[in-house]
Specification:
The complex is a heterodimer. Chain A contains ten helices and twelve strands. Chain A is an alpha/beta fold. In chain A, the strands form three sheets. Chain A has a six-stranded mixed sheet, sandwiched between helices. Helix content of chain B is 25%, strand content 37%. Chain B is built from nine helices and 19 strands. Classes of the chains: A alpha/beta, B alpha/beta. At the A-B interface, α2, β7 and α3 of A face α7 and α8 of B.
């Protein structure tokens, strides 16, 4: 599904990723954990194709295709979804209008037919109910005045509707209390499927109690320094980054 | 060279002013007074403080380019219509509220016109150069007079259309309107402006008596080569309310001054405005709101979207007289710059002579939010479409203030048409 090879990325001329390599096969959930400044957010932004994140070396392959040079909307249309750590507030755009625009834009970019209004509403209402996103929330301006939990639920709703092949969750647990975290995790788990992969990026092990990964990778100073199964996350929780990374180095 | 043209305009106004047949003496006295005043003031230019960012004299010397044709937004079904084509009233296309309207030529011909005092007093103690030019030259227009408690049942659409080569500069064409609303009267007026006059001036005077309510839409839909400078002036009595909505696409030269004096206690002015400027167009929104009486309110909010080489101006002056305690005056200007060559000049001015007042002003100017743009693109919305969505959202906050659904739809359509043509243009700094 996703093959990252020797990825070097600079932001504003400063090297952040320094030879990151990672492979996420179809249907698997991989977690990337790392201390502050390791390059976690840079990894997610680079995979989503954000401007200003310059790939100076290496490649990103998705479903066998080199996507390193593609722009964000092209990657989204191919099935890459980034759930934002801090979803943006966009005044003047209703959530429902945004969802419809996104779904139809992706369909157009893929050369597929757009959804008509009735099918769209059916789809949205079904998805919204599962995530306890109210009709009122859908009518509100996108993320404006939403609580932290509402914003993250809205992200997961978008994921459910856009049905990506690869979902990247960037510090999805930040700013969530335990109830909101459980609700979000349930939403994610419901979307786990043999043809869908997840990359869960997080600082803390807590989220991985609820979204149980197949593999855990530790990112430090722009490289994966250690990989293992879910017990690696528990080990990190017990011993701390310094001890575990120290072992690796 | 420069002086030559300006002088020729002032000379040209002279024969125009005396040429109008059938003028009563008060009208010719008023016109002559303003003609002399304008000759002394001269064509507005950047050496005058209020015209620093909008130099009409300079504009008159420039060659105009761009498409000539535009289509005015259509009026809602059932609306009254007053049509002016190339500065002349067009009776065929007009559907007037007859008992309430009288044409300007008839008013000017009437030596005992009940409107003589008001029409003579305009600008008498002031020196607004555009009002002077307009009053000296205007031969057409109308007086709308609603008696106490009268409510104009449908909006009155006033169409100003200009064909190619009309109102040749520097003489120009000048139209004058008086909207007199007696106590408790109510009206909605919708001005639409289309075409490309060489130089057009329009002065709309609003006299709102106690408890009168006027809703005033201005849809500037001028063609790129148009030169127009309009003034809305007036006074508000006790608890009178003026609600303005100004939407402009700009032009070669496009300015509107709102000069409103809140003379009665509890009077309120609310103005929302938006300007969408592409391809080097100019638009100047100037407001001078004078709080003369106590407990008066003025709220202004303008939003601009400026494309390549566009020039936007917002000058907002609030004057609070010594008796105007408990004044609440706010003004806000937000501008989205879509190109590094776009330019916005904002000048708030507060002159406060009362001590118990709330006055606030703010201005922002910036590019589209890169984070928001990335968020939309990461959801698969193509860059051009994401930009259009964000620009539309920025302007939608202004059009959302329009209460009437038909007029809101008209405004939204003007915005949507503009966005279709211009919002997808991407001009990068590099």
């Amino acid at each position: 599904m996703l093959e990252i090879e020797n990825l070097h990325v600079s932001v504003a001329g400063k090297p952040i990723l320094k030879g990151l390599s990672l492979s996420v096969p179809e249907g698997e959930v991989h977690a990337i954990m790392g201390p502050n400044g390791a390059g976690k957010s840079t990894t997610s932004y680079t995979l989503a194709g954000r401007e200003g994140y310059s790939v100076t070396n290496g490649t990103i392959r998705f479903k066998g295709e080199d996507i390193t040079g593609l722009n964000p909307e092209e990657r989204a249309a191919r099935g890459i979804f980034l759930a934002f750590q801090y979803p943006l507030e966009i005044p003047g755009v209703s959530t429902i209008n945004f969802l419809r625009t996104a779904i139809n834009s992706q369909a157009r970019l893929r050369g597929e037919a757009e959804l008509d209004a009735v099918d769209f509403l059916k789809l949205v209402r079904g998805g919204a109910q599962k995530l306890k996103v109210s009709e009122e929330m859908l009518r509100r301006q996108l993320n404006v005045g939403f609580s932290g939990g509402e914003k993250k639920r809205n992200e997961i709703l978008q994921m459910a509707l856009l049905r990506p092949a690869l979902a990247i969750l960037d510090e999805t647990d930040s700013g969530l209390d335990i109830d909101a975290l459980k609700l979000v995790a349930e939403g994610v788990n419901a979307l786990r499927a043999p043809d869908r992969s997840f990359l869960v990026i997080t600082h803390y092990q807590r989220l991985l109690d609820y979204i149980v990964p197949d593999y855990v990778h530790i990112l430090a100073d722009g490289q994966i320094v250690k990989s293992g199964d879910k017990t690696l996350a528990l080990q990190l929780e017990e011993q701390g980054y310094d001890a575990v990374i120290g072992q690796a180095a | 060279m420069i002086m030559g043209k300006v002088v020729s305009l002032e000379r040209n106004l002279h024969p125009a002013a005396i040429a109008m047949p059938g003028l009563s003496s008060w009208a010719s006295t008023m016109r002559e007074r303003e003609r002399i005043k304008f000759a002394a003031l001269g064509m507005p230019n950047r050496r005058m403080e209020a015209w620093k960012y909008s130099d009409l004299a300079q504009s008159l010397r420039e060659t105009r380019t761009g498409e000539w044709g535009t289509t005015a937004p259509a009026p809602a079904p059932g609306a009254f219509i007053a049509a002016f084509v190339d500065g002349q009233f067009d009776p065929v296309r007009s559907i007037l509220p007859k008992s309430a309207i009288v044409g300007l030529p008839a008013v000017y011909a009437d030596g005992h016109s009940p409107y003589a005092d008001i029409l003579s007093a305009t600008n008498a103690d002031d020196n607004h150069p555009v009002i002077s030019m307009n009053l000296a030259g205007a031969e057409d227009g109308f007086v709308l007079h609603l008696r106490a408690g009268e409510v104009l049942q449908s909006p009155l659409h006033i169409h100003f259309e200009w064909s190619e080569g009309s109102a040749p500069a520097p003489e120009g064409q000048h139209l004058r309107l008086l909207l007199q609303l007696d106590a408790g009267a109510e009206a909605t007026i919708v001005e639409t402006h289309s075409g490309a006059p060489g130089l057009a001036t329009i002065v709309t005077e609003c006299r709102l008596a106690d408890n009168a309510r006027l809703t005033h839409f201005r849809f500037d839909h001028l063609a790129a080569p148009a030169r127009q400078t309009a003034v809305t002036t007036g006074t508000l009595g006790e608890n009178a309310f003026y609600k303005g909505f100004y939407l402009s696409r700009g032009a070669h030269f496009c300015r509107h001054d709102a000069l409103l004096d809140l003379v009665g206690k509890g009077a309120a002015v609310e103005i929302d405005g938006a300007f969408l400027l592409a391809d080097g167009r100019h638009c100047d929104n100037t407001t001078v709101i004078t709080h003369t009486a106590a407990n008066t309110t003025s709220h202004q909010a303008f939003r601009g979207v400026l494309g390549d080489k566009a020039e936007g101006v917002y000058q907002g002056c609030v004057r609070v007289r010594p008796d105007a305690q408990k004044t609440d005056a706010r003004q806000m200007s937000r501008t989205l710059l879509l190109a590094p060559t776009a330019r916005i000049s904002t000048k708030p001015e507060l002159e406060i002579f009362a001590d118990d007042v709330k006055c606030g002003h703010g201005a922002t100017a910036g590019e589209l939010d890169a984070n928001a743009l990335f968020y939309l693109r990461a959801r698969g919305i193509a860059e051009a479409e994401a930009r259009a969505l964000l620009i539309a959202a920025f302007i939608a906050e202004t059009t959302a203030t329009i209460a009437d659904p038909a007029l809101r739809a008209t405004a939204e359509k003007i915005v949507a048409d503009w966005l279709d043509r211009h919002a997808r243009e991407v001009v990068h700094a590099q």
